[in-house]
Amino acid sequence: MNPIQYMTVDQTIGRTPLVRLQRIEEQDNARRGNVLLAKLEGNNPAGSVKDRPALAMIARAEARGDIRPGDTLIEATSGNTGIALAMAAAIRGYRMVLIMPDNLSVERRQSMKAYGAELILVSKAEGMEGARDLADRMQAEGRGRVLDQFANDDNWAAHYESTGPEIWDDTGGRVTHFVSAMGTTGTITGVSRYLKERNPGVVIVGAQPTDGSSIPGIRKWPEAYMPKIYSHALVDRIEEVTQSDAEEMARRLAAEEGIFGGISAAGACCIALRIAREVENATIVFVVCDRGDRYLSTGVFPG
């Protein structure tokens, strides 16, 4: 009898479902011949799209000899990357130190600590820029190695090698538009590189918050902090979304579609619907970056 080959946790990352919206603006989409598809990245083991680059950044740094099990890794994060890195570090035997602003949801902090990570908080005023600066200072002091999701090519390469091909294959090459929140820009960079190699006509759309809006996972970076992995040439269009619209759409996706996603995912959905009102016979894919239960303490969802 042949032995059973069991999967390990890291082998469950990826191959997430691509599902069609069925109720929100259904009649208008049907009349125009459009299909809106949501890629459910919350189905990854640590609950977000960041599982893909988190494991890739650690595994590839290890393969290059840059790090080895037992080392201390440091990363500034707004939440999802930190949770994913904490999981990947636990799998591969690293000490993980995460730095994040103190105004982000308590569920994120608890998830990081559950995986054994050490958490350092900076103030809301310091924000992600302050978190990134502190990570660099700690590395300069010899307190660990910064993976630097913002400048690490292993970030976008994970999406080039997995997320992009999955979208292409699951749509049978019919994808016409891809919409993604822009945080570290790893997802949009890697997916754009892949899809445009297959069809240069695929329109890549980035979601950013309007001025004054605070949407976890979506950023409008000051130029000095713009992620080094980002290339303007890979994004055809940038659309802004308000915090109130994103939060309302998060509630609608859960109540009307059964898709319990986060606020950045809902922001991307708002923009996907905006595009659908402009085009016909389109296949529009947007990324549901994470799960909505990561935001219950924020009051966005009904109590």
TrEMBL record:
InterPro entries: Cys_synth, Cys_Synth/Cystath_Beta-Synth, CysM, P-phosphate_BS, TrpB-like_PALP, TrpB-like_PALP_sf. Keywords: Amino-acid biosynthesis, Cysteine biosynthesis, Pyridoxal phosphate, Transferase. Pfam families: PALP (PF00291). This is Cysteine synthase. It comes from Quisquiliibacterium transsilvanicum. It comes from the Bacteria. Pyridoxal 5'-phosphate binds at residues 80, 183-187, 264. GO terms for biological process: cysteine biosynthetic process from serine. Residues 10-290 form the Tryptophan synthase beta chain-like PALP domain.
